[in-house]
TrEMBL record:
GO terms for molecular function: NADH dehydrogenase activity. It holds the Pfam family NADHdh. Its main location: membrane. GO terms for biological process: aerobic respiration. Keywords: Membrane, Transmembrane, Transmembrane helix. The chain crosses the membrane at residues 6-23, 72-90, 102-121, 141-165, 177-195, 222-245, 257-278, 290-313. It comes from marine sediment metagenome. It is found in: Membrane. GO terms for cellular component: membrane. It is a multi-pass membrane protein. This is NADH:ubiquinone oxidoreductase subunit 1 (Chain H).
């Protein structure tokens, strides 16, 4: 059990470092910023310098703890982000929890974690615009979680189970991405929506230049909020690997954990590629139409196709 926990911690820290480093590296090359390029060899120490900067603001955390409401959102976000990650198996042997309803539980925890970050806005009053903005952000996360849940039902229908182990075992012959490309595309775009980054940074209104709920945080609160977001996206990327890329299934020349890491890294590069090259979609209404009209429609279309294939071509599955 201790060895499995160490595997999970190593995988989490490695995934956090890689996705943050690639994120900053790609933006640094595009915007010619010195920090991520000059701090250490090719900017490898930039992440550690930012962590150290946040830790140096440690006394501010104890000052703000006098008002629990200022920090409850940050702790909710981090707690549910870690719980979602712990529900995900890395291989057939490396897992901490094996629950029958692991997929819906994991997606629900990620959704709650995203809403928890919004609850970290300080000094929200009912007579200010911050309360309206807070409710707007929470409703946005709920709406854009719909295509994510619907798209994940395709692999569930094929495997006849909500258990992530059974979903991976059902892909021992064919990966789901081969006959569910629509579902995979919707899942990837939904991950971008929940990550709140370009080109689908929906929680930002067009008049904002920075994320309001992060700009109110300092020190460790800001660090925890940012890490929670990255943990959520790592969990979603691993889920994408398990749902569509066969998880740890692969040739025996490599360890199953290595296959999980390679496939997750490929999805990570694709998501960062979308982040860096696609311009922002302006207008809240356009983004709502993208979620409810386009993504949900494609998800339901994929479900109809999969139901037809399962009913009439069942021997293939």
């Amino acid at each position: 059990m201790i060895l499995k926990a160490l595997y999970f911690l190593l995988f989490l820290f490695l995934g956090l470092y890689i996705i943050i480093y690639l994120h900053k590296k790609a933006l640094a090359h595009m915007q010619s910023r010195r920090g991520p390029l000059q701090t250490g060899f090719h900017g490898t120490l930039q992440i550690f310098s930012q962590i150290l900067k946040s830790i140096l603001n440690w006394p501010k955390l104890f000052t703000s703890l006098q008002d629990l409401s200022n920090n409850i959102g940050v702790m909710i976000s981090l707690t549910f982000a870690i719980l979602a990650f712990l529900l995900i198996p890395l291989t057939e042997d490396i897992f901490l929890m094996n629950i029958e309803m692991s997929l819906p539980l994991c997606l629900s925890f990620i959704m709650i974690s995203n809403m928890g970050a919004f609850l970290s806005i300080k000094k929200v009053k009912l007579n200010t615009n911050k309360m309206a903005d807070l409710l707007d952000r929470i409703s946005t996360v709920l709406i854009f979680s719909i295509p994510l849940f619907i798209s994940s039902m395709g692999p569930v229908i094929v495997s006849s189970s909500f258990n992530l182990f059974e979903i991976v075992r059902a892909q021992s012959r064919f990966y789901n991405i081969l006959y569910q490309p629509l579902s995979f595309i919707v899942f990837l775009l939904s991950c971008s929506l929940l990550w709140q980054r370009l080109p689908l940074d929906v929680p930002l209104k067009d008049t904002y230049f920075s994320t309001d709920y992060l700009s109110t945080q300092t020190g460790l609160n800001y660090l925890i909020s940012t890490i929670s977001e990255y943990i959520n996206i790592i969990s979603l990327l691993i889920l994408g690997t398990l749902l569509y890329l066969g998880g740890w299934n692969g040739p025996k020349i490599l360890h199953p954990l290595v296959w999980t890491i390679i496939k997750t890294f490929i999805l990570q590069v694709i998501l960062l590629f979308l982040y860096t090259i696609i311009p922002r979609i302006r207008g809240f209404r356009k983004k709502m139409n993208l979620s409810l009209a386009i993504l949900c429609l494609l998800s339901f279309l994929n479900l109809l196709i999969i139901i037809f294939l399962v009913l009439y071509l069942k021997p293939i599955f």
